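Notes from hallway chat w/ T.B., transcribed later so I don't forget. T.B. wanted the structure written out for a chain they're using in a teaching module, and asked if we could keep both sequence and structure tokens in one place. Agreed to drop them here.
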Amino acid sequence: MIETLKAGGVDFSAGANVLTGALAAAHGTVAGDANDQRLDALQAALTTRAVTLAELTQGVARAAPSASAGVRTTVASLPPELLLAAPAPNCPSLRSGKYRVIVNDDGGTVPATGVITLNAPALTLVNTVGLTEVLTPTGPCTYTDEDGGEVFINKAGVAIARVSGATTALHGAVFFPEQAHSVADLAGDYNALAFDRTTAGGLVHATSSGFTVDGVGKVTALTFCDDLRVCVPATAATLPSLTYSVNAAGGFNVTNTTAGYLDRAFVYRAGGGEVMVVELANPGHITFSTRNAAVTLPPLGRIQQSWNLFLSSIYTAPAAINLSKYTVTGVDVAAGTYARAAVVDFNTLATRPETLEINSLRSGYSHRVGPVTVPISLGGTTTVAEFIALPMRGMDMSVLALPASNQFGVSLIESTSP
């Protein structure tokens, strides 16, 4: 809690313990002692940021690595260290601080990642090479930058972006608040979806996997699905030597001594206490991992709107980030499926029917049935493409693979009701 408050500009680390030490409150013209002044500063910070002490305390409890599954929540929110940070004028979830940027770029000999420093009220950032850039608002929590790129931020403080890279093309990127974690924080079972090349000179394509990390950062179990569906569990003889270790420059090294490579991985723990791991290799290969847990069916009538970023197999993001919206029109609990009406034209609000299967492929994934030709509500027909999606727990975010077009998508939830 002390470090969280310090990050928000209220320093309780010096002086007497505010819980057990003496406290002399201000009275009349006599100022209070140091502890009283710190408490006044905390109250002022909470008031300014419209955060209650209960919300801050709950956020700290959920964000603790030791927080139980019963304490954690998948409801997207900011981590406690950002609750007292200054927000952007048009986006309460974009706060001042340091952010980890991860770029899907094949332009260098080291993974394309770095840290930016954001001044949210001024909408300026110092980029990874020390230059100051200005963000121009295009709507609530959406921006363009000086290089023609885009940035979209959701309630969990996660952003998707199109940014300039080693070439003139725009590349896909994600960024989120920079955090320090220990290898013990990683322990658990994960599902993953990746966009990578698995054979020398082969096609970059989507893969899925499941793996387990122990308390010292060693991968102790691995199931790999090179074509997303056909999965091969590693045996004791075939399990590669994969280990996570802290990197002094941030995040972790992922060392595969069997295959002879070293990747970088970065962990983000959102306000609900759930974690997301994003791994990046030198050539631009990118992997998103989340705790292994079953997907639940959405409620009937849910309306959800999302921003979507799509990556190509040459690691560019040629198309602008787009908007999607759907309404859940039917739920079949026995079959584990739901139907939705998805908007295909935001000018006319014409929709088409889509069917999704939860925990299809494996537990934790979702599958949109396709390709299938369906009617459009205002006339005509269209083809629904198949995708396989992996929701990032607690992040209001999913990653998805579109096998037919060999694209990889990153989707942020912009709004949901109920």
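Follow-up for T.B.: DSSP finds four helices and 30 strands in the chain. Might be a good example for the class.
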